[in-house]
Amino acid sequence: MTLAQSSETDGWKTAEPKDEALRGDWWKMFHEPELDALESQVNVSNQTVAVALANFLAARAVVKQARSQYFPTVTATPSVVRTRQASAQNESGSSSALNFTEYALPLDASWEPDFWGRIRNTVKANSLEAQATLADVESVRLTAQAEVAVDYFQLRVSDTQRQLLDATVLADEESLKLTQAQYGAGLTSDQDVAQAEMQLNTVLAQATDLGIQRAQLEHAIATLLGKTASTFFVATSPLTTKPIAIPFGVPSALLERRPDIAAAERRVAEANARIGVARAAYYPAITLSGAAGYQNTSVKDLFSGPGLVWSVGTTLAQTLFDGGLRKAVTEQSQAVYQGTVANYRQTVLAAFQEVEDNLSTLRSLSVELQEQNAAVRSSQRYLALANVRYHSGIELYLNVITAQTTLLSNQRTALGLQMQQLTASVQLIKALGGGWDASPVADMAMP
Q: How far apart are the first and last CA of the chain?
C-alpha cells in the first residue's frame, strides 16, 4: 500500500492499486510460485512489520486523543458526607453536637474553544505523523519482501552451484579411476594419481562449504517469515528464474509511490503544523466552565427544586512574561521544519541515485553475462580437447585439471553474475516503491 494515489477510508489515506505491480505482489513478475508462497507470509508473520504496524496503531490512537480536545470535558463527582458539628453553649452552660448527612450529585463541564488553532494544528500534525508512520509500515514491509526475494534467489543459485559441483565430482571420480588404472598399467606416474585425488578432494570441500551457505540462507528466510530456523526447510531446486523486462526510461512519477518519500513528505507537513501549535501559545487561553447538580441533606429531597445548584463562568489566561520561552519554542519548531525539508530533499535524491545505480548495473550486467557465457562455452571446448589429448597420451593430466578448474570457475562466475542481475532487479523494484506497470514496459524492455 502506498500513499501517492489515495482515497479516504475512515479518515486514512490508502492506495488505489491499478496494476499487479502496485497491489503489493510485485514479486509475481519473476513467475516463481515458491517465491510467491514465501512472500505471502511476510505480511502475516514478519515481526519487524508487526512492530511497525503497532507503531502506526499507536500513532492513530494519538490522533484520537488530540481530536478529543474539540469537545468539552464533563465529570461527575457524586458524594455522601456525614458531618458532626458542635453547637454553641446554651444558658445552662451545656452544649449538644449536631450530626447531619449531606448528599451531592454535581456535574462539572469545561471547554476551551480553539480560537487560535492550537487544537486544530495539533490534530493535523498528529494525523500527518500517523500517515507517515503508515508509510513506514509499507517501507519496512517492502524491505522485508526484497530481502526474502534476494535470499531466495541466492538459495537457488547455491542449489545450481551444488549441481555443478556434483557433476564435477562425478567427472573427477571417473578421472581418478582412469588415472589409477593407467598408473597400474605403467602408463603414467603416481604424480598424476595424486593430482587427480587433489582435484577431487578440492571440489568435495567446495561442495561442503556450499552446504553451509545454503543452511544460513534458509535460516535467514525463516527469520524473515517469523519462523523458527530449525523447523524451516526449502526443497532443493536449481535456478530457473529469467531476467524480467526493465524499462529503458523510468518516469520520476514512479518515485512518488516510494513509502519512504511519502513518509518524509508528510513529516514536512507535520513540522509545519507544529509551528502553528507553537505560535498559538502567544494568545490567551479561554476556558468556558460550568457546574450543575443537586445537594441536600435528605436523599428523598435530593432532586427537589431547592436542592438544585449551578454555576457558569469563563476564564482567560495569558502569560505576561516567560523569559523568551514561547519565542524559543517557535524557533525550535521552525528549525525542525527546515530539517525535515532537507531530509525530504535528501530522500528524493537518494531515491534517484538508487534507481540510476540499479539501472546502470543491469545494463552492464546484461553485456557482461553474455561475455561470461561465451567464456563458459570456450572452457567446455577446452576441457573436451584436453580430455581427448590426455586419453591419447599426448597431454599430462595437469592440463586436464587446469581445464576442469577453469570451466568450474567460469560457470560459478556466470551464476554469480545471474545472481547480481536478479539482485539488481529486486533492488530496482524496491527503489521504485514496488515495481511498475508491466503493460508499457514490454515495448521498451532491455534484454
A: 30
Please say whether the beta carbons of 11 and 130 come within 8 A: no
Q: What is the dihedral of CA 402, 403, 404, 408, to 10 degrees?
A: 100
Q: What CATH code would you report for 72-84+95-113+284-317?
A: 2.20.200.10
Amino acid occupying residue 300: K
- The residue assigned the cell 449531606 is 102
- At 390 the pLDDT is 79
What does the pLDDT read at residue 247? 64
Neighbouring CB atoms inside 10 A of 208's CB total 10
Instruction: Write the DSSP string, 37-104.
Output: HHHHTHHHH-HHHHHHHHHHHHHHHHHHHHHGGGS-EEEE--EEEEEEEEPPP-TTS---EEEEEEEE
> Does 376 score more than 50 pLDDT?
yes
Task: Report the half-sphere exposure of 149 (CA within 13 A, side-chain side).
Answer: 29
SS3 category, 255: helix
CB 326 within 8 A of CB 284: no
Res 265 pLDDT > 90: yes
- Per domain, the residue ranges of the chain are 6-70+115-283+323-446, 72-84+95-113+284-317
Instruction: Please say if the pLDDT value at position 329 is more than 90.
Output: yes
- Other C-beta atoms lying within 10 Å of the C-beta of residue 327: 13
- Local structure of residue 356 (DSSP, 8 states): H
CATH of domain 6-70+115-283+323-446: 1.20.1600.10
Of the spans 155-159, 170-174, 180-184, 428-432, which averages the highest pLDDT?
Answer: 155-159
- The Cα–Cα gap between 302 and 48 comes to 58
Is 80 exceeded by the pLDDT of residue 361? yes
pLDDT of residue 219: 95
C-alpha cell at 273: 503544523
pLDDT value of residue 82 = 84
58 contacts 126 by C-beta, under 8 angstroms: no
Mean pLDDT of 64-84: 90
